[in-house]
Amino acid sequence: MPDTYDVIVIGAGPAGENAADYAKQRGLSVAIVESDLVGGECSYWGCMPSKALLRPTEALAAVKRVPAAAGAVTGEVDVEAVLRSRDAFTSSWQDDGQAQWLDSVDVDLLRGHGRLAGERRVEVAAADGTTRRYTATRGVVIAVGSRAAVPPIPGLAEVATWDNRDVTAVKQLPERLLVLGGGVIGVEMAQAVRRLGASEVTIIEALDGLLANEEPFVSDEVVAALEADGIDVVLGARAEHVARQGTDGPVTVTLAGGRELVGDELLVAVGRRAPTDDLGLDTIGVEPGRGGFLDVDDHLRVPGRDWLYAVGDTNGRALLTHQGKYQARLVGDALAGVEVDPAWADQRAVPRVVFTDPQVAAVGLTERAAREAGLDVLTVSFDIGHTAGGALLGAGTSGTVQLVIDRAGRTIVGATFVGPGAGELLHAATIAIVGEVTIERLWHAVPAFPTVSEVWLRLLEQVRAAEL
């Protein structure tokens, strides 16, 4: 391996891989540093294994909703087969394929812990104890992702708990699972574990609703679905103490007011933090922000360091794989001197999907966020089950779809979909927001019949009736 590259990327998750690939496509020499598995959190302990655990029971529930097909369901999901499928999607936690891909695109893989060692310099400590320093002539990209945050609850640090890595890599399901946190990981994994056979699952959320960053109706509809699955959802509950009996006995969470909840395992899913405490940032005079995240400008550069970029979860702007890859593509091009637009979508058009059943899909601003931004907005909504396509999905199909429309610009600035497969409806809204498509133009985007997408026509009819 050479000692000098045009670009050095620290972290070989999806964001890091994309930054490296795009820089390489532009003719730059690139090395990427990784101390764990090439492919990162998403491939092995996040997006892919979690969806592999959720999808089989979602498919079964979808069949059961169709009266003419429900009678054909004579058994339950094969849990062992689900776990084998999950193992296949994670390549059994082996990164040979990902490493081979890096080799195929001519990006050098440096195995070891990477940290800055001064301006444009990166130090890599290998597993064998050796350390080597490299120089990046164009720039360094930090893409170290994020890890589960641990809240300062008395007793929590002293007991064995689960994080996203433990629950997505589970080999044997617990009978009773407590989930601390009602965000994306909490609600997805609570439903997965319950539907795969756990007898008791309880979500403990300190706020008054689940998925608090989304529209208020999202919490109501997701809570109703989880409770229908037999999951106990405890809202407005602050955990005051955690204890476990022995090393692997039952774990008890004591809530404010004295209520005690007992489970076999406790999944802590209250947020994320960036692992930037040992990245050598002190060697260049940079201090991480709250949660370890790095501040960046709209070109993803660390302020005052035009050679240093941070992409993906590391900068805390949007902790989503696809958004990190978007940022990385911009940076990969920018490092090669290609003029690119700033990371506009990070502020105005972030798409996000929660893969519960029903799914929650949203992009752009919520109504509250739009009003706080000073926009005069019109909000319209419709039940997805009242479309012909929705009704064909099966008995009891429902879910709210809502658009947030800027009256002045006559464009959509936010959209939320709740319902079966709602994630597949999202990209049309994303295109409308990014393209700043006016309501008048959207009238000529004709949805096919009978599809769930016909909900767009119903929403536009409401806009017309409101005389926007």
How would you describe the overall organization of this protein?
The protein has helices at residues 14-25, 40-45, 47-64, 67-70, 79-89, 96-104, 164-168, 184-195, 216-228, 321-335, 345-348, 367-372, 388-392, 426-434, 439-442, 455-465, and strands spanning 4-10, 30-34, 108-111, 113-116, 121-125, 131-142, 147-148, 176-180, 200-204, 232-234, 239-244, 251-255, 260-263, 265-268, 272-273, 308-310, 351-354, 359-364, 377-383, 400-406, 411-419. The protein folds into three domains: 4-39 and 95-147 and 273-346, FAD/NAD(P)-binding domain, CATH 3.50.50; 156-270, 3-Layer(bba) Sandwich (FAD/NAD(P)-binding domain), CATH 3.50.50.60; 358-465, Enolase-like, domain 1 (2-Layer Sandwich), CATH 3.30.390. The model has no long low-confidence stretch (mean pLDDT 96). Helix 3 packs antiparallel against helix 5 and helix 3 packs across helix 8 (184-195). Strands 1, 2, 3, 4, 5, 6 and 16 form a seven-stranded mixed sheet that branches. The protein contains 16 helices and 21 strands. It is 31% helix and 23% strand. With 468 residues, the protein is of the alpha/beta class. Strand 8, helix 8 (184-195) and strand 9 (200-204) form a beta-alpha-beta unit.
